[in-house]
Amino acid sequence: MTTPIDAAATPRLNVVVGVTGGIAAYKAVGVIRELVLLGHDVHVIATEAALRFVGAPTLEAISRNPLNVDLYEGVAEVRHVALGQRADLVVVAPATADFLARTATGIASDLLGNTVLATTAPLVVAPAMHTEMWANPATVANVETLRSRGVTVVGPASGRLTGTDSGPGRMSEPEDIVRAALATLRPRDLAGRRIVVTAGGTREPLDPVRFIGNRSSGRQGVALAEAARDRGADVTLIAAHLEVALPSGVASVEVGTALELAAAVARHSAEADVVIMAAAVADYRPERTADEKIKKDGSGTALTLTLVENPDILKSLAHGELGPRPDGQIVIGFAAETEGDPARFLEIARAKAARKGADFLVVNRVGWTTGFATSDNEIRVLDRAGSIVSDAAGDKVSVAHRILDLLS
Ligand code: CTP
Fold first, then answer.
1. Is the previous residue joined to 122 through a cis bond, with omega within 30 degrees of 0?
2. How many CA atoms lie within 13 A of 222 on its CB side?
3. Cα–Cα distance measured from residue 60 to residue 39, given in angstroms and rounded to the nearest whole number
4. Across residues 231-251, what is the average pLDDT?
5. Class for the domain spanning 194-405
C-alpha cells in the first residue's frame, strides 16, 4: 500500500491525459478520475486505437470535458498545439511501445503526437505492454532517449499481463501514476540534501517467537521519505517493521530492534544534512532473549520480565554523542503523546523538546483510534525552546511536506 495523494498541496492544474491503444486503456479512467477528484481540469486526448479499448462517452463523462481525438477538428482554434501549450502537465497512460517510439523520434502523425511536441509542460508516461516488447532493444533505447530528455517514466509494474503470462509490462496503478506526475511539479528545493528518515516501530525479542513492540505503522515516516525524495533529496530510509511497502527511489535499510536502529542511525547520520526520527523506538528491551520459546509452568504464578533501558537515540544524536555532527545538520524528533488535556499536552511536549535537544520536535496525539495506522495526522512542531513554529492537519503526505517546509 502507498500513501494517499496530497490534495491540498497542489493548485488547480490544466492536465492533458493522453490515452493510447492498449488493454490498459481501461485503467486510464482511474488516472483521469483521480486527477478530477483532486480538483484539476483534465483534457483527454485519445488515439484512434485507444477508442477500440475504452469508449469516448466514458472518457468524456469522467474527465468532464469534451474528448479530443481528431487532428483535423477544431482547426480554427489551432487545437493541435493549443492543448499542449495550455497544459501544466501531460500524462500519457497507457503509453504503448508505438507511442514511445513515435515520441522518441518526434513523429506527430496524430493529435496526441502534436500535443506532446507542442508542450513545454512536464511529460509523464506510464508504459504498458508485454514483457518481450518492453525488453526489446528498440523500446529500451526509446525509453532511454525519452528519459534523457527529461520525460518521467512511471513503471511498468511487474505482474499478470493480458494473457496467461506475467512479468514487467503492467501499467502502474492510477494512484501511483498521478502521484509521480504531480511530483514532477513540486519544487526541488531539497535537491542535493542528504536526508535520513527512520520509520516504523522497533521490536524487542523475548524469545524466538515473541517480542515487545508498538503500533507504529511507519506511514508518516514513509510519507516523509517520499516527500523528501519528490523534492529532490537523496534519502535513506531506516525502516523498522513497516506495515507499508518500502518506497521506490530511496535507499532503504531494514532494522529490527532499537539497538539495530541505533547502529544504523549512527552510521548514516554521520553524512546527513537532516535526520528525521519518525520511528517509534522501544524504550526498554528484555534483559535477555531466551533461545527457546518461554514455556508457562502452569503453577499460576505471575511471570516477571526484567527490562533494561535502550539508548535514547534521538537525544544522543542531538547531543553529538553518536559521533561528530556535520556543520548545520538539522535533527527532527517526533513525540507521540496520549495526554488529552491541551495545556498539559503542550507542557509535556515542551519538556520533551528541551530534554531531547533536537532542532525541532513534531508532536501529535495518539490513542487507540488516532495517529497510528491511519492515513491522517495532526501535528505541531516545536523548536528546542518550546515555541510552536508550525502546525498541520491532514493526510500524512501533506503533513510531511509541511514538516519539510521547515528545512527550506
Ligand atoms: N526515541 C529514540 N530512542 C528511544 C526512544 C525514542 O530515539 N529510545 C526518539 C523517537 O524516535 C522520537 C522521539 O525520541 O523521535 C520521542 O519518542 P517518544 O517515544 O515520544 O519519547 P520517549 O523518549 O520515549 O519519552 P517518554 O517515554 O517520556 O514518552
1. no
2. 25
3. 16
4. 94
5. alpha beta
Question: Where does the chain hold its CATH 3.40.50.1950 domain(s)?
Answer: 14-183
Give the atom of ligand 1 at the shortest distance from the alpha carbon of 361: 15
189 Cα: distance to centroid of ligand 1 (angstroms): 29
Q: How far apart are CA 17 and CA 235, in angstroms?
A: 30
Q: Where in the chain is the domain with CATH 3.40.50.10300?
A: 194-405
Interval between CA 195 and ligand 1 midpoint (Å): 20
Cα 405 from Cα 114, distance rounded (Å) = 38
Whether 213 and 372 have beta carbons less than 8 Å apart is answered as no
Quickly state the pLDDT bin for 369 (edges 50, 70, 90).
Answer: low
What tens digit of pLDDT does each residue of 122-176 get?
A: 999 999 999 999 999 999 999 999 999 999 999 999 887 777 778 889 999 999 9
Instruction: Report whether 38 contacts 13 (CB < 8 A).
Output: no
Q: What does the pLDDT read at residue 78?
A: 76
CA angle at residue 19 from 13 to 21, to 5 degrees?
A: 175
Whole-angstrom Cα Rg for the chain: 25
Active site residue 68: no
**Cα gap 75→193, rounded to integer Å:** 48
Which residues form ligand 1's pocket by a CB distance below 6 Å? Answer: 258, 277, 279, 281, 283, 310, 312-314, 333-336
Task: Note whether 171 and 156 are within 8 A (CB).
Answer: yes
CA–CA distances in Å: residue 122 to residues 12, 149, 317: 16, 10, 40
Q: Rounded to two decimals, what is the model's pTM?
A: 0.76
Longest dimension (CA), the chain: 91
- Determine the 3-state secondary structure of 107 from DSSP: coil
Query: Of the residues 214, 310, 364, 377, which is catalytic?
Result: 214
Q: Residue 281 C-alpha to ligand 1 middle, in angstroms?
A: 6
Q: What is the percent of the chain with per-residue pLDDT over 70, rounded to a whole number?
A: 95
Whether the Cβ atoms of residue 250 and residue 237 lie closer than 8 Å to each other: yes
Q: Taken in order 302, 308, 314, 318, is the CA torsion positive or negative?
A: positive
317 has pLDDT over 60: yes
Per DSSP, the chain holds a count of helices (H) and strands (E) of 13, 19
Given this structure, which CATH class describes domain 14-183?
Answer: alpha beta
Does residue 383 have a pLDDT over 70? yes
Residue 140 Ramachandran class (φ > 0 left, ψ -120 to 50 alpha, else beta): alpha
